Amino acid sequence: MSSIVIDSITATGSTLECDVRPSKDLERFFSGEPFRVEYDRSIEDVPEGILAIPALANVCPLAWASGADVYVDEVDGRFAHALEDVKASLLSMHDFLEGGTLYARETTDAEPPAVESSAERDHGRSTDADSALLFTGGVDSTCSYVRHREESPTLVSIRGWTITTDRADDEKWNDLRERVSTFADERGLETAFLESNVLSAIDHPMVLAHYKRFVDGAWYSSVGHGLGLLGLCAPMAYARGISELYVGATHWEGVDLEWGSRPDIDDYVRWSGTRCHHDAYGLTRQERLDVIADYVESDAPTLDLQTCNVRMDGNCGRCEKCYRTAVGLRLSGLEPTAHGYPFDETEYDRIRRTLEGGEWELGEDERYMWADIRDRVRETTPESAAERAFFEWLVDADLEELVSEAEPPLSDRLLRAGARNVPTRLYNAAYPAVKSARTGLERVRSAR
Question: In the chain, which end has fewer C-beta atoms inside a 10 angstrom radius, N or C?
Answer without folding.
Answer: N
